[in-house]
Amino acid sequence: ILSAAMMLRYLGESDAAETIEHAVVVTLEEGVHTRDVSGDRAPVSTTAFTDTIIANLGRRPTIWARRDYKPLKLPQISGEPDFVKASSRRVLGVDVFVESARTANSLGKSLERLTAHTPLQLAMVSNRGTKVYRASGAMTDPVDHWRCRERHRWMHIEKLNEFDGELGFTRAQGED
After folding, report:
1. How do residues 108-129 score in pLDDT, each as one tens digit?
2. Cβ atoms of 115 and 94 closer than 8 Å
3. Average pLDDT over residues 40-69
4. Sign (positive/negative) of CA torsion 62, 63, 69, 70?
5. Which helix (H) or strand (E) holds 90?
6. Cβ atoms within 10 Å of 158's Cβ, excluding its own
7. Model confidence over 137-152: pLDDT tens digits?
8. Which of 28, 71, 109, 114 sits at a 20 to 30 Å CA gap from 78?
9. Mind giving me the DSSP string for 92-133?
10. How far is 76 from 93, CA to CA, in rounded Å?
11. Separation of alpha carbons 47 and 101, rounded Å
12. Cβ(146)–Cβ(106) under 8 Å?
């Protein structure tokens, strides 16, 4: 019966669902139960239980607190995959995360040498949220996890991992 009330609520018939739920609660308050609910008390048949619920339609529970439901009003969202559309978009660069035991100065100089003849331009290196290369005077206690901000237009970066000696990525056709 309560499943039918849920179905009515789903179909937008909240008032009918509420009426049925109230009648079920009033019936239970009156001590009318089927064998699966009654325990040691005298159970009634499912027909008698249903007849009592029908007789209690329109009544409200007096003992049990009952929460009334309101229909959900969900926002209408476009089915388009790009439903959030920016009026402008510009890629400013990329943050590359590097694991290294080097110092900030050593890592920064190494990255600048590595990218010297490329369009890449190292903007800064940070550690634990603090800019550490080129030194800004801020103090930090660095760990071996560095964020290296490069200024260049990037599309995508993936890590190429190996797990227990097995490649965790696919090779391109023709790649040995």
Report:
1. 999 999 989 988 889 899 999 8
2. no
3. 87
4. positive
5. none
6. 6
7. 888 889 998 888 887 6
8. 71
9. --EEEEEE-SS-HHHHHHHHHHHTTTSS-EEEEEEETTEEEE
10. 34
11. 77
12. no
Q: Collect contacts of 154-158 with beta carbons under 8 A, ≥24 apart.
A: 154/91, 154/93, 154/94, 157/94, 157/96
Tokens of residue 118, six digits: 């490329």
CB 156, CB 169: distance < 8 Å: no
Extract the tokens encoding 44.
């009634």
pLDDT, tens digit, 9 for 90 and up, residues 6-29: 999 889 898 899 999 999 999 999
Residues constituting the chain: 176
CA 70 to chain centre: 24
The Cα 70–Cα 73 span in angstroms is: 9
Strands 121-127 and 94-99: unpaired
- State pTM to two decimals: 0.44
Tokens of 21: 């739920």
Do the beta carbons of residue 147 and residue 95 sit within 8 Å? Answer: yes
Q: CA-based Rg of the chain, rounded to a whole angstrom?
A: 34
Q: Tell me 92's DSSP state.
A: -
**Residues contacting 25, CB < 8 A, separation 6+:** 61, 64, 66
